[in-house]
Amino acid sequence: MADSSSAIVQPPKDRRNTITVALSARALFDLETENKFYQENGLEAYIQHMVERENEVLGKGPAFEFVESALAVNDRIRKLDPKDNELFDIVIVSRNHAQAAIRLINSINHYGLCLERITLAGGADPTTYLGAWKADLFLSPDEHDVRSAIKAGFPAAVVYKYNGEDLPNDQLRIVFDGDAVLFSDEAERVYQQRGFPAFVENERQKAGMPLDEGPLRKFASRIAAIQEKFHTKEVPCPIRTYILTARSGASAGKRAILTLREWGLKIDECTFNAGASKAAMLKAIKPHLFFDDSPSHIDAALEENIPAARVLYGIKDEKVETRPAEKVEAKPAEKVEAKLAEKVEAKPAEKSRKRSREKVVECDVAKGTLKEHFPVKKTKS
Questions:
Q1: Is 142 annotated as catalytic?
Q2: Taking the model in full, what pTM does it have?
Q3: I need a labelling partner for 304 at 20 to 30 A (CA). Which of 133, 218, 278, 285 fits?
Q4: Sign of CA dihedral 35, 39, 41, 44
Q5: What is the CA radius of gyration of the chain?
Q6: Contact 141, 360 (CB under 8 A)
Q7: d(CA 334, CA 352)
Q8: Are 333 and 360 in contact (CB under 8 A)?
Q9: Angle between helices 217-232 and 64-80 (to 10 degrees)
């Protein structure tokens, strides 16, 4: 258990320069069992369930390691300059009911996390408050909420349960895909629609033309600005960033590198994987979070117990959205068996050992509007 009496960097009151990462309670903690209980028993029973277990610490969720390491970066920044407010500001935006939240708070304190900013929306859409919090990034395992955030103009990604070991928090390691994550999906669209030879020719002709920005470009730039504080003072930096792209180096790498140069965006390491699986490189890097738009790359990362976040953007996401609904939607607390390409079959999560792209509904409490202060209970299919 973390020592809650140790010195903790408090979130700054002046938030104009903070990097605000908003996330759902289910992204931070493992609430799958609680979600299943709610779906089967309703809100009042769920609240009672949580109240009776207020002193039982919740397990770590898919974004826990990222959050813990980001908060450790804050400690390092304040050691450089105690007055510096350009910090990570982690905000929980949850559907949870206030009466059920004591267990969340006790778990936060158990782990010694400096998470003081919390919105408990009581069943309402938590993404409504991203603007008020000035979120730079939103993370949730609930795809519906992530799409709502994107529609409202906020960078967002779906995080997935994985069974990895605890990661050291002495250095925050973030891996970005290139196309459709840092860059727009312009080149990816050529590849998907016209094939590899056309893609290579397109990149050759446009080698000196910077790519447009992708959904996480600004977030990456904010990270780079924090890194520069440490580089300027010539002290070890507690953040390391990576690009891990399926692009080939000699035939398609030039445009990517020149785009970063045009933006003035410094990335510590760049790997051109030339279409190979990213799993081996991810195992070597051991990132706290890996951002990619490709479901297959997310699957490969989760198979190796790498924390991964899918960016719902571009032509690959359009293909996912246009599949028949029964082939992309799983019921709460169920998983999609990734090997079944033609017919997707869901089964209870507690019986399934498949970790691929678990499609979950935000546990905190049901979706929809409140009716007499309580969300409508979903019926089981």
A1: no
A2: 0.82
A3: 218
A4: positive
A5: 21
A6: yes
A7: 8
A8: yes
A9: 40
Per-residue pLDDT of the chain in tens (381 residues, 90 and over written 9): 444 444 555 677 777 889 999 999 999 999 999 988 988 998 899 999 999 999 999 999 999 999 999 999 999 999 999 989 899 999 999 999 999 999 999 999 999 999 999 999 998 999 999 999 999 999 999 999 999 999 999 999 999 999 877 888 889 999 999 999 999 999 999 999 999 999 999 999 999 999 999 999 999 999 999 999 999 999 999 999 999 999 999 999 999 999 999 999 999 999 999 999 999 999 999 999 999 999 999 999 999 999 999 999 999 888 766 443 333 333 333 333 333 333 334 444 444 434 444 444 344 433 333 333 333 344 443
Q: Could you give the angle at the alpha carbon of 159 between the alpha carbons of 33 and 171, nearest 5°?
A: 110
Q: Output the six-digit token pair for 3.
A: 């020592």
Closest CA to 123 of 99, 147, 150: 99
Could you tell me the two tokens for 255? 């445009």
- Determine phi and psi for 26, rounding to 5 degrees: -70, -25
Q: Which amino acid is at 67?
A: V
In order of 89, 275, 285, the CA distances from 80 in angstroms are: 18, 41, 26
Which residue reads 């908003």 in tokens? 22
Distances from the Cα of 278 to the Cαs of 86, 243, 273, in angstroms? 32, 11, 7
Phi, psi of 323 (to 5 degrees): -70, 160
Phi-psi sector, 180: left (phi>0), alpha (psi -120 to 50), beta: left
364: phi then psi, degrees, rounded to nearest 5: -45, -45
Q: Which of 125, 136, 145, 177 is catalytic?
A: 177
